[in-house]
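dumping the sequnces here before i forget
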Amino acid sequence: MPEGHSIHRLARQFNDVFAGEKVAVSSPQGRFVDGAALLDGHTIISAFAHGKHLFVNFENDLTLNVHLGIYGAWTFGGDDQFNGASSIGAPRTIGEKERGTAEVSGEYQGAPEPKATVRTRIVSEHGWADLIGPTICRVLTPDEVRGVRAKLGPDPLNDDADPASFYRAASKTGRPIGVVLMDQKSISGVGNIFRAESLWRQKINPFRPAKELDASELEALWEDNKHLLHIGVRVGRIITTEPDDRPGIPETEAWPEHANYVYMHHGEPCRRCGSIIRVEEVAGRKLYWCPGCQH
DNA sequence: GCCCTATGTTAAA
DNA sequence: TTAACCTAGGGCT
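..and the predicted 3d for all of it:
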């Protein structure tokens, strides 16, 4: 799944290729037929992301709201006037891979026959986008969009995000900070990799009650997640290691074992203190951390 | 082919 | 806390 950075890349992609375009919307799979009919034939105004939610505004005041969950993914394709044919969403290879323009070449000949699992297909004059496996795919009114966003915590990738809201939420709960970072009502866009990596980078034990962290620690977590999310948006992958820790390996080519410090590194020695990295299931998700240097 | 896993979330128990 | 849901790929037999 895609953590928040993928959704912001998606929003950017939608703005690049669909903004101002009149589109055909359909549901080859058949599970979004009614929703698609509300949008079919209308013009896309713009798209934006809040945490892991994608919102696509149409000129008829309706908004397409998609959440990819763990499995969801969008695939794009089109002609030369359709920027950046690519795939964004659930990884289909080791690590996250978002395919570049080189994968789709030659003359655009129309969208391919959709797979039976395509929940939603969007087609413009110059290209197409297919959505598979989303947790959420629905059409919202402006009021409903506000309602959904009101339940989401601040997203470090959004310029108008208020970190104080995250600090307040963390300061009043005894839940572990590792759990709070995954709670989209407290902070949105952070997922299992960013939470593990940011806690390791800030040397904070994920099991510490959130309310016991001091202001500088909460601020460090906000700023580091913001920093790491921005790298994710720029590179299209989650890269949480510092350049010095992957000598000679450009961020765009970092292998999975070079890209992260603790995520999926259980059983290996911590590169900071040598202790063996551990993994434990917490609230249904695997939490990776170093018992030696995260206090 | 079968089993497992995954960057997620919600509802039921 | 558990189950359910959404899908595809990899490793195994």
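Residues 163-289 of chain A form a domain with the Helicase, Ruva Protein; domain 3 fold (CATH 1.10.8.50).
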